[in-house]
Amino acid sequence: MKNKAPKAGLALLLAACAWLSSSEAHAWAGGGHLGLNLDDGNIHVGGDLLFPIVDVAPSVRLSVWPSVAYVFVHNARDVILFGGDLPFEFRLANTIIAPFVGPGLGLAVHRDIDLKLNIVGGMFIDPTPGVRLFTELALRFVRGTYVDLLFGVLFEV
Question: What DSSP assignment string belongs to 61-104?
Fold first, then answer.
């Protein structure tokens, strides 16, 4: 059962991404990130997709943000993180910065599989059309509390 859960989670994530990308209303983006766990100093690298879903207000957009990351853990088994966050992006007038905050869920896969509750916050920076830089602070709860700082880039498709 333990070996099938990550594969099932990845299949579900890919199916959701395919369904969301079929929408013509919004452009989606893909890219990657580097992260640092602020608790233990563990570094991680990962991939991200961002699917805008709906404008909940004229300047607030809700998106789905699936991600996967490989965490290099000191003196222990490395961890694979699967995430699904729901950021609310606040599009500010006359600036290239858009702050975001939102909830999410994650799976930490190591010897066991731990379900995590995520709270994410940060900002997107849009220096040129089609390129989105981001910085994010992710709080991960359940069976320990972890704080990750991420920096990444997304390219609109």
Answer: EEEEEEEEEEEE-TTS--EEEEEEE--EEE--TT-SEEEEEEEE
